Amino acid sequence: MADEKYSLRNAAINPGGLAFGDISLDAAVEASLSPVQGMGVFAAQQVSTLGLTLDVLGQKISLLTAAIDSLRLKLSSQRSLSQSPGADAKSESASEQADPDKSGSRIEPPNLLKPMIELDSAMADLRQAAGFNQSQSKEVMQSTLIMSTAPLVAAGGTSVVDLLKIESLAARAGIVSNLPNASDRQLELHGFASDAAVTATAFKVPAMEIAEMMVGWRNSMRLTGVASFALADAITSLGKSPGDATAADIGGALQRDGGAATAAGLTPVQAAALTAALLNTGTQKADAGGALSNIVTAMGKGDKVSATERAAWQQLNLDPAVVASKMRQEGQAPGVVMSVLAGLINQPAEVRSSLATTLFASSGEATAPCGVPTLVSDHSPSSETPAFSHFWISRIIRL
């Protein structure tokens, strides 16, 4: 039962102020009609007092209404908390009972309002990140709502709130920093969010993770939005090739180390193919990016190689200076990579792994556990793909 101080029964009589019982309307009217001199003054005083009483009562009713609204919201919050299972909820409830002040200051909004609050919050973040005004924000909201209903977006479970958060991420990452026009910023952010959502559906990964991945591609490999989406399309295809590499694993490796491959002369798609080859020959996904970086870095050393590395290059009948020079020539890097890996494959089985480790080691450690040595071995981890290394080298050239 509600607290007695909020009972409507006590609203008419309040010890803290005047009440209806303090004035008799019958007496006031009777006095005002009396012919006795002075009774008119008394009546006027009574009416004046009545007006003050009504004013005070109106204030009391306003306070009472506010108290009832606050009580209803608090009870709704406590009901929601009491329905949440688990020891954490019980512990929190006990803590709130021990500290009434703390409990009263943490009023959760009703569950029905939470989606709208989350949507408003996401829109406010985007408005701040992208510099949109109120009118532009309404346009962004409408177009983003339409985008969220697109089949390839909705199929991945990406909501309108997710799309707004993706656009905020892109804006803060500098994707639209060079676009002074608000309509251009809106178009670019919508395109980025759409690409991320569609890619998330293809990769079977949450859209926010894909957005962070695509920001990494664009910044490290200096890609445009169109090139970034083309890379995502190629990675999707590579993820369906024979082997265990998934599109998400390939994309994650390029997010961290794709810049080294493109700086060495490989196209983003060729870097993706080499990464897929490493992953499909046993390299752990956490090591694939580092292995990719080490391979292309080693091929670009030129005359800076050590004596041991120079001897390994000579065993492959390759000059490290010529290799490095061709890696820097436009369009030559894929052919150089194929020549080096093919040269390793053509070596006797007993020396391939040691040569690969010598050439592509980093700080005295192998490029990656079961990485490049396995890439150039005779044995494929999949019985469905004989001559596995040759298969992937040819793919790198074709892409």
How do the helices and strands follow one another from N- to C-terminus? HHHHHHHHHHHHHHHHHHHH
Structural class: mainly alpha
- Basic shape: elongated
Low-confidence stretches: 1-39, 363-371, 376-389
| Termini separation | 74 Å
The helix content is 55-70%
Rounded to an integer, what's the Rg over CA atoms?
37 Å
Beta percentage is under 5%
Please state the average pLDDT score: 74
Strand element count? 0
Number of helices: 20
Largest beta-sheet details = none
Describe the structure.
The chain has 399 residues and is mainly alpha-helical. It has helices spanning 25-33, 39-82, 87-98, 100-105, 114-130, 134-148, 151-154, 160-172, 182-203, 207-220, 225-239, 247-264, 268-280, 285-299, 307-315, 320-327, 333-345, 349-360, 372-375, 388-398. The protein is elongated. 33% of the residues are buried.
Keywords:
399 residues, mainly alpha, 20 helices, 69% helix, 0% strand, disordered N terminus
How do the helices and strands line up, and which of them pair or pack?
Blueprint: H1 25-33, H2 39-82, H3 87-98, H4 100-105, H5 114-130, H6 134-148, H7 151-154, H8 160-172, H9 182-203, H10 207-220, H11 225-239, H12 247-264, H13 268-280, H14 285-299, H15 307-315, H16 320-327, H17 333-345, H18 349-360, H19 372-375, H20 388-398
Task: Quickly describe the structure.
By secondary structure, the chain is mostly helical. The protein has 20 helices and no strands. The radius of gyration is 37 Å and the shape is elongated.
